[in-house]
Design goal:
This protein is mainly β and 350 residues long. It has three helices and 20 strands.
Amino acid sequence: MPHVQRVLPPSFPPPSFPAPDPLEAVLRTLGPRERRHVVALDEAGRLHATSPELARAFTATFVPDGARLAGGGFDLTTLARYLVPDAFGKLPAGRCESEKSGPYRRVYSNPGFAFMSARVYLPGEDAGELRENKAAGHGDTAFVYVGGWGGRGGAVDAGFQHGRASKDRVDDWAPFFLVQQAGGKSVITVSSEKQAGGAAWRLAAGTEAFLKFWVTREDGVTRLNLYVEGTTSQDGVPGSLTLSAPVDDTFGWDPSGGRNILKRMTTIGQTFGKENLTSGSFLTGVRWSEGRIGRTEADAHPWAAADTGGYCSFPDPKSPEGQRADGSGKPKWTVSFVSAAEETDGVTLT
């Protein structure tokens, strides 16, 4: 009987499949307006964008908890980590006190929402609507933003920081997106450049911006999303931008609402631990309007009193600490309240 050699089939490694493209996943959830200019962060900290130019315009930085970062000027990594009130705080229920990082006005929702939108006026320094007294040494910087907390924490702040970033120092507001991560780390996605004219991607001061914030889940990943539109600071043309970042599921962010709490904030942020409520800075005319809230954009409705978990102004205008020291007899905070969907905020640190 002839010897027959048994030939074994070739051995192949188990098939591997490419990881889902985060940009593709994000684009599937967006409408035509929101998908024009998109920057998406993946779980490894890489940025993906709808154009090479846009990809080069943004950076993502992981900030270890407790790190003391040097720097100043327009360093959003430092500013957002140590200047944005409650960026890494606990849920706000029943709490209206110093965060050791400057005055703030907070309006926050009851639990159960995953979408919010609003228009907001971005005051101008050149128009005399704000002053950031950098010489006082407390890092005074104006912020307006939205965000919130998942059912088990995971603070998110997403909106605008005032500055002067372009080569000719145009008065502007920069978008930022700060997401708390598990293990005490956070990620900030910031715009560094560019508009078509070569200046950094910023919105013009003295104009109104529209923004919305919402939660999605696609390909097994929960993502937080920010959309902004307004007038670009140097080119002076309408601009729009969508930023998207993953958030760890341990924080309980729920795309159907769950126990999420959403918020909007107006503040002069100061260096953490160097709070000074008489620094001489001021911020006026921050008008929030057309506020809407819901589980989704489709079912969103005007933000009403019944949707609101609370209002907080620190320092409390009714307290001695909340009174100006300039002899005017006025409180530091002025809030022209129209409804839960509309108010105009201002603060004067004297």
